[in-house]
Amino acid sequence: MIRFRLSIKGLYLLFYNCYDFKRCEKVVETSEKEEEVEEKEKIEKYRKAGHIAARIRKKLNKLVKVGTPVIEICNRVETLIKELGGSPAFPCNVSINNVAAHYTSPPNDETVLEDNSIVKVDFGVHIDGFIADTAITFDLNSGFEKLKEAAEEALRVAIENIKAGVKTNEIGKLIHEKIKEYGYKPIRDLSGHLLDEYSLHGAKIIPNIALPHGETIEVGEVYAVETFASTGSGTVHEKPYAYIYRVLPVRIPVRLLSSRKLLKIASERFKGLPFAERWLVKEVPAIKLAIRELTSKGILYKYHVLADERESMVAQAEHTIIVTEDGCEVTTSTKGEEL
What we know:
Elements: H1 8-63, H2 70-83, E1 87-96, E2 99-101, E3 117-127, E4 130-140, H3 145-161, H4 168-181, E5 185-186, E6 191-195, E7 205-207, E8 222-230, E9 237-247, H5 257-270, E10 275-276, H6 277-280, H7 287-296, E11 300-307, E12 314-324, E13 327-330
């Protein structure tokens, strides 16, 4: 038998190292538990945001009527978000006919919903930066009910097939095929997108068209899945005007006091999320001059209104989902609602 002897110092070091190792184990275990709690809290915030969005979706039928001013819809949706305990993740979009995205009312907007039109209402809710993004199309006697159905069916098929391990381009192919079945074109420039804390557009997209390559969808990821069906070319162009902006993470000196004020308010209040000119028009003097300076210096990003060709019609459908092992959880629909 081999024997060995330990000095008092050696015994102390042995005990200390053993204790320190156990302490490290406890630190790791505590850290893992904290991460698990944080993840659960994050998911609950996504769900809460989705629940608010789902409640508002149900109220839209009463708002979207022929003769309703667009600014009334925008203001009402954004007010409801706040009353229900959330914050707008971006300005409410009300896009009419061939306009596909990014139209929100400017200050004093006089646009009114007209008969024979197709109207998309797209809005977002966030709870501490965790976002729900959803959209619904309304047919105001346009004669394009099938176009609306095409977008909704494409969304339903996409959601039914999303689960961990599936590639984003596989979902895009299903969307493309379903819209084509109806005789329409998917809009190739617009897509579903990964959501993150205070971030509307993450690193991954879910396209509206079939692509040769895609990213793997993973458990716990949150996506805004949105589909666009068009009677036109299936591509969008930028209109010369924009009413939605976002502060970019750059540090460039500005000259105008109004520019500094706008930048301070937008940075602190919206934390990188988009905002509308009309939200700040009463707080920022000479807001148009401020916007002009900040956009010219590359400090503000402009969301130009996006539209397909003239005389075309575009329909949109969108829900937010949380990816699971064997499917996904839709956060923005109420129980029993048809997807």
